[in-house]
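Entry 14: structure prediction run for Mannose-1-phosphate guanylyltransferase. Input pasted below.
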Amino acid sequence: MKITHAMVLAAGLGTRMRPITNTMPKPLVAIAGRPMIDYVLDILVAAGVEQVVINVHHFAEQMEAHLAGYHGLNILISDEREALMNSGGGLVKGLKLLDRSPAFVMNADLFWIGDESADKSNLSLLADFFDPARMDMALLCVPLERTTGHNGKKDFSLGADGRLKRYTEGDPAPVVYAGAIALLPELFDDAPQDAFNLNIYFDRAIARSRLYSVEMAGQWLTVGTPEAISEAEETIRRFPPADSDGA
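Run finished. Output tokens:
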């Protein structure tokens, strides 16, 4: 399946990243010299995405100014200045700016490196895997040992058939949600119009045996606190770009 539209969730307050986020939005915090959100946008461009909606709230003007200078994507802004909509409400509001075709959903502060050597990029793999006839959503997940900056929480257990369920102690194949989804916007036709957490739809899909996942290639990074920045930068140094000679 070819997916050319996406939504990036970027409106959070970044409270754990304070004091840095007292003066700037978390997606613009620099990791190895680049704002976090640029890593996410580059991933979308590499996967063939053409149009992306990004929601803004905290220091929204800074976000808009930065995004105006990013080339390679048609970027639309979903404005949440008046009220934060949480992950689910923000997604529903943002998707209304796109058409009804399949879309990726990504978090502005979660990204990965090192999948360039795989047969397909992680998002291309996710798009090919997503089957709306069987799935409400397809998530990209990662084993705990290939995460950087994560708190150790195991989100799901991944079945041999690709189905996900919430992890409970002792389950086989625990994985971490990597912050990328493939879905159809029509999934939210019955959604609330105010703030709600996207986990409601994860649990609904699990109850219907319609939440699936593929395991990503490479190393996954989350940068939740100022102290995590150096760890992320060290990981990035260990994964030089595909066109690098490794020097």
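Notes: The longest strand covers residues 174-183. Will compare against the previous run tomorrow.
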